[in-house]
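Customer escalation, tier 2.

The customer says the design service returned an amino acid string that "doesn't look like it belongs to this structure." They asked us to rerun it and document both sides in this ticket. The original structure tokens are below, unchanged.
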């Protein structure tokens, strides 16, 4: 080892002291995992072995903490290597470098709509295309939260009016906002992006955010979606880190086929920064949110286990939180 003191038979006490110092230095080193390289340095993910932080490699795992707010943003139709490390998404690169970056996340199917339903309700509800949804009365994450005394709101950019249940309006598409098709939710659970609160402590317990068809990268470039995230959610992401809250950014599906993974990043309080190779899909994300709030698992989320290796063991004490 470089810097290791030379051995000498007459100086065993010095050797012992050096060993103690080395062990102490190692113990003091952060265990939250390596930071990602910048976009120009980021290695290709294809065929590479991701590096997980020390907390995710064996041993006891931390209990899933209970955040005050969870915000889930779903973007569109990209492989991980089309987004991260390309130079076209500097804000998403920043989130990946400062949060939990999953390199083995996958959708359930193609096309888009069944994946949104899987994340929201634990089932694709028999939907296999992007046609206008029928009305559903099935259990879902929002009804679970409300039954347990929590709250849910879906915010959709370009939604023409609160409670709108139509299939399309300009750049708004209901296929990306599944809660709009469930009859067991109040109209107030379906809000336009303009209703996003200025004070983040006024957010519901769980919020889903759907950018419009340009801002979610469906119809526009990766750079457009990245810019929208930075302009609209960077303040919340920063706030979440010190206010016991989370931001989850994922994609509905990859660009095609089954081999390529989708970008998925979790940032916020109690999250160990690092690159995680744990396999992840929308059912596992749903199960994690349900587990966080003590909710029973829905549908196919029952067969998934919640994320457990990315959490720090202790939440931020309320005495250390401050208002925005």
């Amino acid at each position: 080892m470089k810097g290791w003191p030379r051995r000498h038979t007459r100086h065993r006490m010095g050797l012992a002291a050096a060993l103690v110092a080395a062990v102490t230095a190692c113990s003091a080193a952060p265990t939250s995992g390596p930071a990602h390289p910048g976009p120009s340095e980021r290695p290709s993910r294809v065929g590479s072995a991701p590096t997980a932080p020390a907390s995710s490699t064996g041993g006891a795992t931390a209990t899933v903490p209970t955040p005050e707010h969870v915000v889930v943003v779903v973007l569109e139709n990209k492989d991980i290597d089309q987004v991260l490390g390309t130079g076209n998404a500097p804000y998403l690169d920043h989130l990946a470098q400062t949060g939990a970056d999953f390199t083995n996340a996958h959708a359930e199917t193609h096309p888009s709509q069944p994946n949104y339903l899987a994340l929201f309700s634990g089932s694709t509800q028999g939907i296999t295309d992007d046609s206008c949804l029928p009305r559903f009365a099935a259990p879902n994450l929002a009804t679970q939260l409300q039954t347990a005394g929590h709250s849910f709101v879906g915010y959709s950019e370009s939604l023409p009016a609160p409670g709108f249940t139509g299939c399309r309006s300009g750049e708004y598409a209901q296929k990306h906002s599944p809660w709009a098709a469930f009859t067991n939710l109040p109209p107030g659970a379906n809000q336009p992006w303009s209703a996003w609160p200025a004070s983040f402590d006024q957010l519901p317990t769980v919020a889903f955010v759907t950018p419009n068809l340009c801002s979610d990268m469906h119809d526009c470039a990766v750079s457009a979606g990245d810019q929208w995230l930075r302009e609209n959610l960077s303040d919340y992401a920063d706030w979440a880190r010190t206010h016991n809250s989370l931001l989850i950014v994922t994609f509905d599906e990859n660009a095609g086929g089954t081999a390529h993974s989708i970008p998925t990043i979790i940032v916020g309080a109690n999250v160990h920064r690092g690159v995680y190779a744990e396999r992840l899909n929308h059912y596992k994300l749903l199960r994690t949110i349900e587990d966080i709030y003590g909710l029973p698992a829905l549908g196919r989320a029952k067969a998934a286990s919640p994320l457990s290796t990315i959490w720090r063991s202790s939440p931020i004490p309320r005495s250390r939180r401050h208002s925005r």
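Tier 2 assessment: The sequence is consistent with the input. The chain has six helices and ten strands. The chain has one domain: 54-320. Sent an explanation to the customer and offered a walkthrough call.
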